[in-house]
Amino acid sequence: MSFAIAPQKKITVYLIGDSTIADKEVSAYPETGWGMPFHYFFDSTVVVDNRAKNGRSTRTFIEEGRWKPVVENLKEGDYVLIQFGHNDEVPTKKSYTTPEQFTANLLKFVSEARNKKAVPVLITPVARRKFDSSGKIEETHAVYTQLVKDVAAKYKVPLIDLDQKSQELVQQFGPESSKYLYNYLLPAENPHYPTGRKDDTHFSELGARKMAEIVLQEIKNLNLELANHIRVVPLKEKK
Amino acid sequence: MIKANFKKALFVCLLGLVSFTLPIKKHITIWMVGDSTMCQYDSSRFPLTGWGMPFAEYLDSSVTIKNEAKGGRSTRTFIAENRWQKVVENLNEGDYVFIQFGHNDEAKNYPDRYTTPEDYRNNLIKFVKESRDKKAIPVLITPVSRRKFDANRNAIETHEVYSKIVREVAAEMDVPLIDLDAMSLKLLQQFGEKNSALLFMQLEPGENPDYPSGVHDNTHFNAYGARHIAELVLQGVNDLHLELSDRIFKKS
């Protein structure tokens, strides 16, 4: 029996964050959070548990008791992918979180994940679609992205600079074509949005998948053990 | 007197309310018969998406979607494999049958799929007749366009012969027609030669774990493209004023 291999425990990857990651109600389709396509990328040893929720900041996520059950369920080797900022950084929003509190909350996520021997990964907030008059994409999370980076550097947390990477992608698409990445719909095009939609924050299926692909690539670049659990299919010419 | 009139008016109002809200929609099924551009895919093949998948998200709870479409099937092989028989046997009055074939029927280089124009026509007629025999409503759909542009960057027709046959059968037998070929061709033109690739299974090597060597496919849609095609079909349903359009999700 000494050669028997213990059945491998599944790794849970918790996603905590806001509407840019969250699973959507069918009635909100085609708005898509990047957590939705993200779970297709892993083999059967991984369960992606998308706890991200529309409208939440680090503060309201904690206050509403959304973080506590994550911590309670964390086990050694699990991951917590943390991406907040959109709702923290807007002073007019009820979800506003001061920079100091934002930093403290990120630190709370990191240290409590580590207490459970789980692996926290900090992710800077994904880019909004905003271009200046010369067609150059603008940084819309300057302060809060920096805070994420600071916490990552100070506490040696794996960091995915999704803000930067997604800005590069949106820039590649350019001011016009980048609309395809976001939830842009003409009036009467889609039954869920009869008057149409021009959303520069939330993604289409295309944008969500592209963002998920960036996060996946960065998981590989960070050499996280999780990268060993990305689905592998044999190379072939035609599927 | 005023009070009595008021009561009467109130009664009439209530009666009106009742008669407008009471008729509960009969539950129906939409049977989707077709090929790989319409069918359901397993998540292991994501982002590959048949347009029947997002289409289902836009109908209300009075509708069940049975997506019986299957990759690689022509009208001929769909029938030969008894797939059509299974649909017919389960059809109920008021059900819809969405019929979209052509890609594999017209593929002469795949003899195991190829269907002659004559047989294609006869098979479509068979689908229509047998649906109607069961008091179901057949809807003919021309095959969704492939992505092909000419030197002047015009999206070009890729189903010339077979789409025409669908249109003819629809006209001859007075079948509701959704000219998805024409609609999707227009969509591709709107996106343009380069950006229309965003609708299809186009992945760079290493971009997506399920397609390690990448894929450049101008026939099959990704999730984004499939949804756009589903939107066109929904538009087609509305344009036809089918009873079904009352079952498309409405924002309350």
Short account of what is shown:
Chain A is α/β, with parallel strands linked by helices and 239 residues long.
List the helices and strands and how they pair.
The complex is a heterodimer of chains A (239) and B (252).
Chain A: E1 11-17, H1 35-38, E2 46-50, H2 58-63, H3 67-73, E3 79-83, H4 99-115, E4 119-123, H5 142-154, E5 159-160, H6 162-177, E6 182-185, E7 197-203, H7 205-221
Parallel strand pairs in A: 1-2, 1-3, 3-4, 4-5
Antiparallel strand pairs in A: 6-7
Helix pairs in contact in A: 4-5, 6-7
Chain B: H1 2-21, E1 28-34, H2 52-55, E2 63-67, H3 75-80, H4 83-90, E3 96-100, H5 117-133, E4 137-141, H6 160-173, E5 177-178, H7 180-195, E6 200-203, E7 215-221, H8 223-239
Parallel strand pairs in B: 1-2, 1-3, 3-4, 4-5
Antiparallel strand pairs in B: 6-7
How would you describe this structure in keywords?
heterodimer; A: 239 residues; alpha/beta; 33% helix; B: 252 residues; Rossmann fold; two-stranded antiparallel sheet; 8 helices; 40% helix
Overview of this structure, please?
The complex is a heterodimer of chains A (239) and B (252). Chain A is α/β, with parallel strands linked by helices. Chain A has one domain: 3-Layer(aba) Sandwich (Rossmann fold). In chain A, 33% of the residues lie in helices and 15% in strands. Chain A is built from 7 helices and 7 strands, in the order βαβααβαβαβαββα. Chain A has a 5-stranded parallel sheet with strand order 2-1-3-4-5, sandwiched between helices. Chain A has a two-stranded antiparallel ribbon with strand order 6-7. In chain A, helix 5 links the parallel strand 4 and strand 5. With 252 residues, chain B is α/β, with parallel strands linked by helices. Chain B has a single domain (26-247), classed as SGNH hydrolase (Rossmann fold, 3-Layer(aba) Sandwich), CATH 3.40.50. Chain B has helices at 2-21, 52-55, 75-80, 83-90, 117-133, 160-173, 180-195, 223-239; strands at 28-34, 63-67, 96-100, 137-141, 177-178, 200-203, 215-221. In chain B, helix 5 (117-133) packs parallel to helix 6 (160-173) and helix 7 (180-195) runs antiparallel to helix 8. The longest helix of chain B has 20 residues, at 2-21. Chain B is globular and about 50 Å long. The chains are: A alpha/beta (239), B alpha/beta (252). Chain A binds chain B through residues 26-27, 29-30, 37, 40-41, 177, 180, 188-194, 204-206, 209, 213, 216, 230-233, 235-237, 239, and chain B through 43-47, 54, 57-58, 195, 198, 207-213, 215, 222-224, 227, 231, 234-235, 248-251.
